[in-house]
Amino acid sequence: MEPIAMDIPNYGLYGEKERDVFPEYIHIESIRSRSVQHGWKFRPHRHHNLYQFFFISNGGGKYQIDGRFRELGENQVLVIAPMIIHGFKFLPKTEGWVLTIPDIYLQILLQHEPKSLENLAGGIHFQCTREDISKQFCILFDEIAVENQRNLVLSQLSLKGYITLLIAKILTEQPKIDVDLHVPLSRKQLLMNEFKTLISEHYKKRIGVSDYAGLLGITATHLTRICKNLRGVSALKLIDDRTLLETQRLLIYTSMTIAEISYELGFNDPAHFSKYFYNKTEQNPTQFRKGFMQK
Q: Phi and psi of 290, rounded to 5°?
């Protein structure tokens, strides 16, 4: 595998331009489906706001994480956190799954289990040493793939259940099997996690970067530097992402008026809220709602 270059591409999914998608968007595909297109090789790249969960059922190869090379084999689980530079060279005919989940989706799903998200952020890789454990992972990934294709009324609820079970299974098995691979979180990572928790608690108050920095006991400049370093985006972008997620949810899943949504999210003026939404999405709230309903 080639060494890491200075200019690391930042993708949505590998080979695709990063684009804004509804933050509850879940993607799962077989390792084979994208690997065949790229000759089973994936150059070093990263995703600024996506977690990826891999399960290798057959085959393997090598992977690169921030310049470190490791072997990848059958019945192995791998979790890659946002902004981690990674690349792969799979053996031809390798079988398995790759599940891609937006960071903000997991923040909300695991909001009452912050330690779980911290463990995922540290990176995980382990070998299933028992056949029954491997089968359980196979079943979970298979069920997520099937449910994601169904796109039924309760599919989102089902997916949240399966993903919660998958994460619980990973965190349950990982310490037993591969404790030495767990990477302790740095102070920057701990501050980042605390910042994301504070955003979830206060985003409806419309407070700014300086206010969050004050709650963390650091300067706004320091907070922005941490976000740029760990996530590749500004602190303000992370705050906006949470506001936009809730806006999209309220537009899609409720009958609240635009004015009601604007007040719910801490805006004093519905016109200002509509302008804010348009500047971030290039659609006004009404257009977004109608467009989603037409889909």
A: -65, -40
